[in-house]
Write the structure tokens for this entry.
Amino acid sequence: MLCIIDTMYSVAILGAAGYSGQETLDRVLGHPELEVAALGSDTLAGQPVSALDPRLAQIGAGTLPRFVTNDEALASDANLLFLCIDHERSAQLEPPADGVIVDLSGGHRLLDEHAYEQWYGWIHPLPAGLADWSYGVPELLPPSGRLIANPGCYATAVLLAILPLAGSIEPASVVVDAKSGISGAGRSLRPTSHAGAVLENLVPYRVGQHQHQPEIEQALGFPVCFVPHLLPVRRGLIATCYVTPAEGTDARAVLEATYEQAPAVTVLSEGMAPELGRVQGTDAAEIGVFADRATDRAIVICAIDNLGKGAAGQAIQNANAVLELPATAGLRLSGVLV
């Protein structure tokens, strides 16, 4: 635990103008025990927060600091630092000597330094420090220490679905078909994220080489066949996992017992399937469990918001855990019925 006398924890967000940065800021503003100290953005440095979103002016933008560069935000001495910058830049940062740091990028998720070159395309600049980072899925792999690697969105959904079953399924049987909204690709524009390439379309991408694959393997203890797809929606992610349980394993009973006390994860009633519409804009996860009569396989489906439970919401959860704050503080755990 980080011991601080003040009742409020100061927060700095690097990359606050990106999708995950905006979502993190939104949750910090709604958190009863966090306050914004610095907002980093190299593109918006010097500008008021209303330059990011004019709606911020309606909720007290005058009390929020102007944007500074990411380097200035890093040096702000905040109690809690969220890294919402790209993978390689995050990996290059020397962590400040004090405070809790939650890295929403992939810069510290993998323990094997050689895996970064294989899966991310660059050599990790600070491999000796990788062991200092804990990989935090609050419900399954609680974070420890002050340096926390926030899981990827696909990895989060897959691990919520099958990590509790890892010791009672046949590893070679696991196949994951996952689909994410376009915001999972980040805010930077690229040809594959143009409306003309996304709308009225469904595209598998990075087949057999997605960077979330090794972190899934690292947590499960074995590799899985994983294929991501791009959905023509703004946000939301659904992972359908096909597994062969060991004889006598009741997959539903295992998952229900695992998440019985988990406020952000719901195992749906028998016969009910997860839906993106119910988790979009929230930090919640829905899990559905089905039996395939033809093959005796279990089908476990997890739906999350890729920017919520798959990024900013989980980052807040991890910070709450390390700072010993209420588990649901700052979270959005339900959407709006329409």
The mean pLDDT is 92. The chain has ten helices and 14 strands. The two ends are 41 Å apart (CA to CA). The chain has two domains: 9-150+310-323, 154-306.
